[in-house]
Specification:
The chain has 71 residues and is mainly beta. It has a single domain (6-63), classed as OB fold (Dihydrolipoamide Acetyltransferase, E2P). It is 0% helix and 52% strand. It has a five-stranded mixed beta barrel with strand order 1-2-3-6-5. The model has no long low-confidence stretch (mean pLDDT 93).
Length: 71
Amino acid sequence: MDAMPEGTIKTKTNKGFGFITTGTGEDMFFHRSSVEGVSFDELKEGQRVSYTVGQGPKGPRAENVKVIKIT
């Protein structure tokens, strides 16, 4: 199984979406419905996450967004 892409929460809005810095120079949109394991409200800017790349109505978006636990 391929490793899931990882990024950092760049921004989070009070409208239920945000953007992940992917490290490739492009930010990835994500919606609150794509967050797994924690609530959207628990996410913090600067937090590391993993995700899968999906397709939304306006282009690529992050799905299956999960916080990376620091061990």
